[in-house]
């Protein structure tokens, strides 16, 4: 990348972060493009150069979730699947872009949007790691990577919502561990179930 | 009940149903008490005799979910737990009170409500059926009814949301069956796992 491209990427990220903060605080309805521009310290022209509308901004925030998680991980296969959910659980408490992304994905129905990209992206990523697990002989016979991935995406969406209402997400890492303790014996071999580490600390990556 | 009490119950249900329809169509923000009164064909006085505010109405709609499901079931223990989720999956497509209840429970955060009663009621009901399953010897050793119930409530919340965005809930019964196929081996004995019927048709009760 040359300097000009680098600056463009930086500006785009700056807008994305400002948008996420405003969406996180006020929801989609309560967020205006002008308040996002103000928060980013940029001009309306700069924003519209990168994003054509508020909806495009919301979609970009929703769909940036994997980028906030995947580069932090070093495990693979089934352990990586577990790690994704634990890092997600932890970073939801500290990363406004991730938090806004999840909020928008959950609430989008009520403002007429129906973008399942963030769900489908996670499903595809998780399916890939489960395929690896299958090749490594870690899955029980008959367990389909895609079925597990689809279920885990849905289940995580719901447990974070319940956790948010009940504890402001303070118990989310523990509830995510519960999920794996209940789910692993049904999807993984006894050897893999015994080997996979399920603990809130797995989410504490920088 | 005497005639007067019967009429009061009927009026209350009439209001609840009208409120559910209006919430289901317009969300909480878009619903006004006057539109609910109009839909119910009653007076504002009748409404305020039964419910003190729009929020009280929303809470009543959210918390009437078990009443729409539990009386329809005749199984017990683990089979009943499975049946609850399958009847819930099916009736979400046809029962506006249930649909509005779930919508309000999911969206309440954005209008400043934080009523976890509907989640906690389901959790308590499910914990009871899982206690029965444990007494009947159907649970694996070390599996705690309360942990399973908490997880199932959260997971169902999320899979219905994902299903709604992806297929307008057309695949919800199938996804609920997937959940049980993945989960049962981890929580139930092999005998119980083989015995429990998991099929969309279980949800087709009147």
TrEMBL record, chains A, B:
InterPro entries for this protein: ArpA-like, CprB_TetR_C, DNA-bd_HTH_TetR-type_CS, Homeodomain-like_sf, HTH-type_TetR-like_transc_reg, HTH_TetR, Tet_transcr_reg_TetR-rel_C_sf
Organism of provenance: Streptomyces lutosisoli
The keyword Transcription belongs to this UniProt entry's keyword annotation: yes
Protein name: ScbR family autoregulator-binding transcription factor
NCBIfam families: ScbR_bind_reg (NF041196)
DNA-binding region: 32-51
Entry keyword ATP-binding: no
Domain HTH tetR-type: 9-69
Keywords: DNA-binding, Transcription, Transcription regulation
Entries under PANTHER family matching the protein: HTH-TYPE TRANSCRIPTIONAL REGULATOR BETI, HTH-TYPE TRANSCRIPTIONAL REGULATOR RUTR
